[in-house]
Predict the 3D structure of the following.
Amino acid sequence: MTEQLDAGLVARQITEHDGLGGPVGPDGGREVGRARRRREDARLITGRTRWTDNIQLPGMLHVAFLRSPLAHARITRVDVSAARSLPGVVAAFAGRDFDGEQGSLPCAWPVSEDVVIPDHPPMAVDRVRYVGEAVACVVATDRYRAADALEAVEVDYEPLEAVLDMTEALAEGAPAVHEAGNQAFTWKFSGGDVEAAFRDAPVLIDRTYVQQRLIPTAMEPRAVVAVPEGEGFTLYSATQIPHILRVMLALTTGIPEHLLRVVAPDVGGGFGSKLQVTAEEVLSLLLARRLGRPVKWTESRSEGNLTVHHGRDQIQRISLAAERDGRIRGVRVDLLADMGAYLMLVTPGVPLLGAFMYNGVYKMDAYDFTCTGVFTTKMPTDAYRGAGRPEATFAIERAVDELAAELGLDPIEVRRRNWITREEFPYTTVAGLTYDSGDYEAATERAVALFGYDKLRAEQADRRERRDPVQLGIGVSTYTEMCGLAPSRVLGSLSYGAGGWEHAAVRMLPTGKVEVVTGTSPHGQGHETAWSQIVADALGVPFEDVSVLHGDTAVSPRGLDTYGSRSLVVGGVAVLAACEKVKEKAKRLAAHLLEAADDDVEFSGGAFRVRGTEAGRTIQELALAAFAAHDLPDGFEPRLDAEATFDPENFSFPHGTHLCAVEVDTETGAVRIRSYVAVDDVGRVVNPLIVEGQVHGGIAQGIGQALYEEAVYDTGGNLLTTTMADYLIPSAADLPDFVTDRTETPATSNPLGVKGVGEAGTIASTPAVVNAVVDALRPYGVRDVPMPCTPERVWRALARSGGGGTAGPPGPGAAADGTGAAETAGGAQ
Amino acid sequence: MPTVTVTVDGVTYEEEVEPRLLLVHFLRDRLGKTGTPVGCDTGNCGACTVMLDGRSAKSCSVLAVQADGSDIVTVEGLASGGGLHPMQQAFHEEHALQCGYCTPGMIMAAIDLLKDDPDPSEEAVRAGLEGNLCRCTGYCTIVRAVRRGARSMSGEEVPAP
């Protein structure tokens, strides 16, 4: 068997079982597709967890970091001597103390020729560029003493001007964040003849949307324990990327890679925020090396809000040219993306992940994308659930709603006139991606039915007619996205620093149990359960007989970790590929023991049988025989295990239709989500329970961006939203019960037919909610409400339009159709 | 340093503590009860919720000295005899957790909620758990789990979902 699985072959094998009904996995198994309760739960619901902060080791020290209170300043003096002399304090250091040792935090995605990657010392030496940047540290015998001693560190600063606004940052004479200036990079991409598409376009929609800055807010704060062990070090970290971290730490600190072990124990959520190589990881490791003792750091939530990388923060100008019948000719996007003060692991790549998605699910002749990355004196941005695709989807889905309003068409009808139809797959888009499969009609039809679309439209008309102070809005979002980060060749062509393959090992143990090693690194997704289901079907073994190992570079030496909805579509498929190799090997052994030709042996239900006879061996018997090694074919190594990697040839393209109904109180500006329906197509499903959970959580985070969340800096560059009291993530009381369903169009890019699901909900939901809010207010002349759509912002939008409250809408005649035309006329091209 | 005497999950401890020591750090760092995690520093997230003399309390907002003489139950002490508490079982059945970091606090808060309202409506659960934040689930399955747990705690046979 070749290193990589023949995707087409296995896909056909799966398809052949379709007629059997019910969930069908590889070889007709019944685990894939089943709503297995998670095996991970047992430890999590009983408190027998392994969070990094749980770790206590003999002689362990605690480090605390002093952080810059200024957004931009020269450091003129740091004096840690008073701190050093306090009880319990073992050491205290300033940035200069790490000269020649601390290196520069890595950026693995140099997106363009002109990209500026400034030096980024983990601890600032002579200049700080955002509030929260580490300037000194204290190491003490417990966390309270370390925190106390920070008070005794003296730092003198010479303040410089903060740079907060992207447009001002790019203006002539703006204070420079870095010597090379404030422009981090420019990146352009074009498909088709854009000039022609926009020339004399009968309809032009031109809008600017702001993707506010978000704080990812995984529930588990970051934590690190660095341990000197033997010749080398073990670093425990609440990270999504133990494998990437190991490579990057070796490159950054010079500690040889083979002497560095990285462990991601139980990790309490990430959403991209733990896809990073952090200053605290590097410095904890350096301190452990210097002091020869284990060093632990656990952030407080307020410290985390300041210094966990932020998400989004883009200004999007989107122009859409269309015919009067609603058909889209082309889309043009001009993007400003706030990098913050430095380029971290994939900071400049995030907007590029959206660059290929501004055309959404629609056909068009031309597309043009320009992005400028801008440095400001704020916390760097980087991946946050969806990374680039939520931004793109928001812009196109909002713009298409504006097009519908302009033309007086139903927003679903406008979408229908433009989307790729089910017969047209595989379809190569104007952005050059080939969407492998999809059925937008089916997902939308199902969503419309579940939502009761027509009935809600009727109620909306009635409320408008009655001038009800509480108006009903209906929001539509028909999304697709590119995920399953993967094709290594494509990532290479985009200048990404690594590949996108994934690795797995499957080992049959002598007792017939199965050990699976995966290079993915779960932090809530349920890989232990899902991978066990895949293996149970593939090898015909009981689900309970499989265990899944991960998150430790000593146990799972090869992998590229978990982000970008890649785990199942790349890593899960690698697990299946390894199972296929194990079966190939077992078949050879079975044929030998049964004295039959290889080709006469068939596998079914966990056993190999000679065709047409009852003579056979179970895979467990073969595992024992391979272990005993008493009677093996010539050249057969005495073990029944295999490794495999999988590197798909295409991205994964989940899609779906999300519908949201909101009630907007025009007197107070309050928005209440009344109902939310999501019909997603994520291809074949390994575990519907896990899929539903991913969709639910994704929707909630997208709603968070639409209605609640924003990282706010004041005019001096101080973060105002440092606590959970200020940065509002949705609570149970803020959200409705979501109605979810699925259509199932198998992916053709992997043998399981699966598509990514981790980010889909977040990508889809933000525009659905904001479209609903704006839809409620359209009769008042409101055409946009900036996110988050707080009561104040809704109220202000109404006040600006002269509507709202008991004044009521200007009357049915002036509804939707009337408002857009005037605006479009005023819109610049 | 003051001495506190507390019973945690059925075991009595007598420890000298700094007056400023938070109960959650006392539990985690001194007693090794790491089943109760810390999610924030402002009492907003509820991950650290424990039962303090029978009612839920956010242990990041209580000093260890304030707990002197108290009986504390953490998620580690909920179940007896190696099984699961009905609320733990319900969270498992309904897939009411993903990363699981908020789960101990969520389960403790849910059990406390039922003391006032043994059969809460969806709205009551949502309102009652407002002080416990989850970033993974979107809460739908948590709400289902709490209502399932409520029925099974009242002795009702609850079929698998």
